[in-house]
Amino acid sequence: MKSRIAIAATLLGAALIPSLALAAEGGVEERGTWGALLFYVINFLLFAGILWKYALPAAKNYFKDRATGIRDTISKADAAFRDAQVLANRAAERMAKLDAEKSQISSDLADETVYQIGRIYDLAQESAARIKRDAEISAAAMAENANRRVREALAHAAGRLAGDLVKSNFEAADQTRLVQGFVEKLGEEAGR
Amino acid sequence: MKSSKVAKRYARALMGLSSDHAQLEAWGVELERLARIVDSPEVAAQLESPAVTHALRMQALGKIAERLDLSFPLRSFAVVVASHGRVADVTAMAESYARMLDDLMGRARATLTFAYPPTDEDLARVVDGLAAIAHKKIIPTTKVDASLVGGVVAELEGKIYDGSLATRLADAERRLSG
């Protein structure tokens, strides 16, 4: 800030001093061209000295700072560019990998699908065989059950019929014969 | 089970009072009569009532024995049973006594169930057949059960001898039904 104020004051002074010199021209008696030239030369030298003393370091500093700033900016831009390059490379790698991964997943999915289809087919075959076996067993059991029921019904009917026949035709002699048979069995039992 | 053991002990004690078979038989008949009276619902209800005192129960059983005109040993037996609070076991005692007496006399009781009322000849044949098995004299109790259809069923010493037509028909039916 101070250097800027100094620079501004120097430039303003350099601009006003020749004006003062010119403004005083009318009041000075003309003494020839060499004196005026010397005045201008001295004036110029003063102006140049002041510039050399005050404006040049400030300008140097300014340009130096500016160059440093530009270099920093360029350096940062380079770094950012490199980072972007790295990211771009990574993205490219990822894209390449993504394609490989995609094809791997696709291949895995195809394999899994084939495996699952095979498994479902096997399970379906097993289920079909089991259903068939169960159906056969059930059918056999139902047939056996039906046969047994028919046999039982027939036996029951036959038994009832036989009982009715025996009752209707039973005579005293039959009872005597049954008792005789019973006594013979008792005799066999006693003989053991 | 406990009651049965007690009844056996009392029956054995009564039997030990004499070795005269005729007297033991007579006591058996008397004990049977006493058991029948004591076991009748109206008498049993009175004797087992908590309102009747022990002394009154003894006195009542003594009077029952007297009314039944039981012999002295049986009257004493009845009073002893009452004094020990075993009136409810008199029927079991009579049964145990009858079994012991049967064993002593070499006889067995059999229940014969006929499909039709048996002739004397049929009854005698069945009794002889059972006697041959048991090697004892058989005292039969006869019943008639028309559901047997024909033949006879005998129960002797806990074993059943089945000669009925109903059982044969049932067997045939079972064989037919497989």
List the secondary-structure elements of chain A in sequence, H or E. Answer: HHH
Structural class of chain A: mainly alpha
Mean pLDDT of chain B: 89
Count of distinct strands of chain B:
4
The first-to-last residue Cα distance of chain B is 42 Å
Helix-and-strand structural type of chain B: alpha+beta
Q: What fraction, in percent, of the residue positions of chain B are helical?
A: 55-70%
**Can you tell me the overall shape of chain B?**
elongated
Low-confidence spans of chain A: pLDDT under 50, at least 5 residues? Answer: none
Quick overview of this protein structure:
The complex is a heterodimer of chains A (192) and B (178). Chain A has helices spanning 2-23, 33-169, 172-191. Chain A has 192 residues and is mainly α.
Describe this entry's structure for a reader:
The complex is a heterodimer of chains A (192) and B (178). Chain A has 192 residues and is mainly α. Chain A contains three helices and no strands. In chain A, helix 1 (2-23) packs antiparallel against helix 2. Chain B has a four-stranded mixed beta sheet. In chain B, helix 1 packs across helix 6 and helix 4 (54-67) packs antiparallel against helix 5. The longest helix of chain B is centred in the N-terminal third of the chain and has 19 residues, at 21-39. Chain B is elongated. Chain B starts with a helix and ends with a helix. At the A-B interface, helix 2 and helix 3 of A face helix 7, strand 3 and helix 8 of B.
